[in-house]
Design a protein that fits this description.
CATH class of chain C: Mainly Alpha
Distance between the termini of chain B: 30 Å
Order of helices and strands of chain C: HHHHHHHHHHHHH
Number of helices of chain C: 13
Oligomer: heterotrimer
Number of strands of chain C: 0
Distance between the termini of chain C: 41 Å
CATH superfamily of the largest domain in chain B: P-loop containing nucleotide triphosphate hydrolases
Structural class of chain C: mainly alpha
Number of strands of chain B: 21
């Protein structure tokens, strides 16, 4: 047989192959459909949508819905647009991602290279915490944030995301460091390097890929969160997802679908951009959360 | 008291004891090899000397100072690892001087020491490269350079050659030996390769099952193995161990063994002190190279015994020809000159150098002769 | 002597640092996860309403909960949703993975398309589906404007069918992820086994049925665990698409808990429902995590 089929054992006939391509392309169209709907309808006037032209390309191109969604749309009581909520999300995501990743890296380092009795149990408990239905912590968390004076603040939300994100970041770094040769740590110990020197000089310089995975995963997850935002945010600390939902669900006035779609894209933009730029790492994070890393 | 003392040291993980009362005293400038099959405890012992594993009981002393509980970096030791353990993100130069940096040695001194070591090991041209760009042999040199630059009291080697291909391994073996002769350092070296152990060491500790089976010079280990484990572990092909019965014939003890066809052969021992074993079963140990044809027999030996037996298989290996036969119900290998005229199925007159023969107690497996 | 003592101190410090480094995380886990779980479970046995209160009422909240038709609807919906969601995701994921594994030209282009929904918020995709399926402006309207005047598709507004639109959107979001899991499994199978099976005369169909798919068992298990845990946690998507309606047609335990706790001021019942959700997930996750962590040792 030809060289192309040599490394895969399975050979398919021409008809089968055509069918396979057909199915694959149909599914690709299916997956692209909502994105297409959001994109084309966010740049057309409202009457083109209500007139049954949702699937059509815009006849009249306008960026008006985008501008409105960003800066003047009615969210809750004020016509502020999504802009302030976008910055709320940024202010929440950045510290939460950095802190949970740093803690995850240190935890992973300890759990693989400084093992002690019951470390697997501790890790198991951390991992289980990633999968709990967060409904179980909503009530006491609301109380705790109140007690700490963080109720309704961006910092409070960041704290919540740190707490429930550490399990995953620790999982990434633990699996990554588990295959990092322990002899290197021992060599560094003999060379006289301490705990932090080994981490800083030996492990961290080789941790680039997994740090990217952790940052991207945390960024995507926290940005996309709705439950915590809806439960703990105050009126002026709401993240983007909550604001978008308020925009779409508001029952006053005419439903401006084009503005809704523009808002949805604005909310999707950061994670979508990250996915386009570094999708490889995102998928790696996804897989590490499901199968053995 | 020696330079490095391992004094009645044990190691246990919970209730599982992996090292039993190890006693070894190493003199300054000695090259001690710990050899044994995997899981025998040799690497554990090395890690305990390094301070990477705790000592359960007993003491380890370097230059008389007790090392129990002392941090690895404070023991003035250096270690070469099996995987070389070179820091992947640092250049070769940084790798070599990292330990000095951690010990607060100023940069000019570090650079000077690095240059000296690089010259000694001929790796000057590699100093700016990363480990990933080096060949196996080059990494090996860098790992040794990292150890040498510290000028430690004791060098520890953990199977340093096992990741090299066969030819390079022999070259590096010679190089390590040269380095030891030149610098006169004290070395503890772990390997599972008995040839490395024989060629490099001034003394060998053969280990198995957490016990030191025998501690001695290579010659002692090879000629007078303490028990069947040592006898069969050291030497390649392994020593033949043949069931035999001691028969006193006019005061001379003979080993009575069964030939391929069931008939008996008698091989006289050189030593007379087997009288107590008359009529009892022993295990006779004969190294392959002491079974030869008539021309190959050792002329300096005073006790060459003839033995006629049938050849089963011949394996010419270039320099030697290995001949296998059946004796006492076991496959026995003889190592003959390559020009020996042997062929399978032939009844052949072998010559056995009984001066080199050893005997073991079949119950305890300990050596009873010589 | 003094120097030895120093060395010992440093060594001992080095032994403690790892545990010190881990301790903030352990403390957070102890309080924010396990402490909170205990607190919520405790609340489910109290008469808490608008605010937590500590009057012990035993199993009263649970018996009330099981008598609520609202809860029953949530559970029925959960059953329909979880079964279809897991089944369809697995079927689509496996099919796409097998098809993509046939040396497909453009795999590098198709795979990211299948997977990008996982990077989006359910609120975003929920919005898109909500309006796309809306009979007023979405699919029904589109088809009618294209000439199928009698075309009707109002499932999202229909009590009997709304839950299936949630299934559709959820499948759309996660099936690509399941595909990636199966693809990783397929790529992990030793090619020599396949060659051996072909030498034995196995057809492609038999190759997959008898040799390949049985070897994907770990991927099936992972997919099941991940999907069922996602199903039980489904919340955002319902909020964005239907808000639980029409009526209660798309209520799920997660939305039930939220509305009983925060809008109906029945905190005790909300806590009881959350406890049941936790126990369901624990029954799936704990054996799974246990076996994963054991194998690694």
């Amino acid at each position: 047989m030809s060289a192309a089929t040599q490394d895969t054992a399975i050979r398919t006939g021409r008809v089968t192959r055509t069918l396979i391509y057909l199915v694959l392309i149909l599914f690709a169209l299916f997956y692209m459909l909502p994105l297409y709907v959001m994109l084309v309808n966010s740049v057309k006037p409202l009457d083109e949508i209500t007139g049954g032209g949702m699937m059509n390309l815009p006849q009249e191109f306008t960026i008006e819905p985008w501008l409105k969604a960003w800066s003047t749309a009615q969210i809750g009581v004020d016509p502020t647009g999504l802009a302030p909520y976008f910055w709320n999300s940024i202010k929440m995501v950045v510290p939460a991602v950095i802190i949970s990743t740093v803690l995850g890296a240190l935890n992973g380092y300890v759990l693989t290279k400084w093992r002690f009795k019951y470390d697997t149990i501790i890790f198991g408990l951390m991992l289980f915490a990633c999968f709990i239905p967060f409904q179980i912590v909503l009530i006491p968390m609301a109380r705790m944030l109140g007690l700490m004076g963080l109720a309704g603040t961006t910092w409070g939300l960041a704290l919540v995301h740190i707490v429930y994100g550490i399990g995953f970041t620790t999982l990434y770094f633990r699996n990554y460091y588990a295959v990092f040769p322990t002899e290197l740590i021992r060599a560094a110990q003999i060379d006289g390097a301490g705990f932090f020197q080994i981490f800083w000089r030996i492990l961290l310089p080789s941790s680039g890929p997994i740090a990217v995975v952790s940052v991207i995963w945390q960024f995507t997850n926290i940005w996309n969160d709705f439950l915590f935002g809806a439960s703990f945010a105050g009126a002026d600390s709401q993240p983007m997802t909550v604001a978008l939902n308020n925009l779409v669900q508001s029952s006053t006035g005419v439903k401006e679908y084009n503005v809704h779609f523009a808002g949805a894209i604005l909310a999707a933009m950061p994670t979508l951009l990250v996915y386009i730029v570094a999708g490889r790492y995102f998928v790696r994070g996804l897989m590490a959360g499901s199968v053995k890393g | 008291m020696g330079f490095l003392d391992i004094d009645n040291t044990t190691k246990a993980y919970g209730s599982v004891q992996v090292l039993h009362n190890v006693d070894i005293s190493v003199e300054e400038g000695e090259f001690l090899v710990l050899v044994g099959p995997s899981g025998c405890g040799k690497s554990t012992l090395l890690n305990m000397i390094a301070g990477l594993e705790e000592i359960t009981s007993g003491e380890i002393r370097i230059k008389g100072d007790v090392m129990n509980g002392v941090h690895p970096s404070k023991r003035n030791i250096a270690m070469v690892f099996q995987s070389y353990a070179l820091y992947p993100n640092m250049t070769v130069g940084k790798n070599i001087t990292f330990g000095l940096e951690m010990h607060g040695v100023p940069k000019p001194e570090r650079d000077k020491a690095m240059q000296e070591v690089a010259t000694l090991l001929q790796i000057e041209q590699l100093l700016d490269r990363k480990p990933g760009q080096l060949s196996g042999g080059q990494r090996q040199r860098v790992a040794m350079g990292r150890a040498l630059v510290r000028n430690p009291d004791v060098f520890l080697f953990d199977e340093p050659l096992s990741n090299l291909d066969a030819k390079l391994r022999v070259d590096m073996r010679t190089e390590i030996k040269k380095l030891h002769q030149k610098l006169g350092t004290t070395i503890v070296y772990v390997t599972h390769d008995q040839i490395e152990a024989m060629t490099l060491s001034t003394r060998i500790a053969v280990m198995n099952g957490g016990y030191v089976q025998q501690l001695g010079t290579p010659q002692e280990i090879y000629d007078s193995p303490a028990n069947i484990f040592v006898a069969t572990f050291m030497g390649s092909p392994a020593m033949n161990v043949i069931p035999a019965i001691v028969r006193l014939q006019s005061g001379v003890p003979q080993a009575e063994i069964t030939r391929h066809d069931g008939s008996l052969a008698h091989l006289p021992f050189s030593q007379a002190n087997l009288a107590a074993w008359d009529g009892r079963e022993i295990l006779l140990g004969i190294r392959p190279e002491t079974i030869t044809d008539t021309d190959g027999a050792d002329r300096k030996s005073a006790n060459i015994a003839p033995l006629n037996n049938r050849i089963v298989v011949t394996e010419p290996a270039g320099s030697d020809t290995f001949v296998s036969m059946s004796l006492g119900g076991k496959d026995v290998i003889a190592r003959m000159r390559s020009d020996a005229e042997v062929r399978p199925g032939q009844d052949f007159d072998f010559m056995v150098n009984m001066e080199k023969a050893v005997a073991f107690d079949p119950e305890t497996e300990a050596r009873i002769l010589p | 002597m003094a120097r030895t003592a120093d060395a010992d101190f440093k060594t001992r410090l080095q032994n403690w640092i790892p545990k010190l480094v881990l301790s903030p995380t352990i403390a957070m886990m102890a309080v924010f996860v396990y402490g909170f779980i205990l607190f919520s479970v405790y609340l489910s046995f109290t008469d808490s309403r608008l605010l937590p209160s500590f009057g012990w009422v035993g199993f009263e909240n649970y018996s009330k909960l099981w008598r609520l038709s609202h809860w029953e609807v949530s559970l029925t919906n959960m059953g329909i949703f979880a079964a279809l969601y897991i089944l369809i995701c697995t079927a689509i994921g496996l099919t796409l993975a097998i098809f993509l594994d046939q040396k497909i030209r453009g795999e590098g282009f198709l795979r990211p398309i299948y997977l990008y929904p996982m990077a989006l918020s359910f609120i975003v995709t929920g919005t898109a589906w909500k309006w796309f399926l809306d009979p007023g402006i979405g699919l029904e309207n589109i088809m009618q404007s294209w000439g199928w005047v009698n075309f009707s598709f109002d499932w999202i507004k229909n009590r009997d069918y709304a839950i299936y639109t949630i299934v559709l959107a959820a499948v759309w979001q996660t099936s690509g992820f399941v595909m990636a899991m199966f693809l990783a499994g397929l790529r992990g199978i030793d090619n020599e086994i396949l060659k051996a099976a072909q030498m034995d005369g196995a057809s492609n169909w038999n190759l997959y049925r008898r040799i390949i798919i049985p070897q994907l068992r770990p991927a099936f298990l992972s997919a099941f665990v991940i999907l069922s845990h996602l199903a039980i946690k489904t919340f955002d998507l319902v909020i964005a698409m239907t808000g639980g309606g029409p009526g209660r047609a798309t209520e799920l335990p997660a939305t039930f808990m939220y509305s009983y706790t925060f809008t109906r001021n029945q905190m005790g019942i909300g806590a009881a429902s959350a406890t049941i959700m936790l126990m369901t997930i624990a029954a799936i996750m704990i054996p799974y995590l246990y076996s994963e962590l054991r194998e690694k040792k």
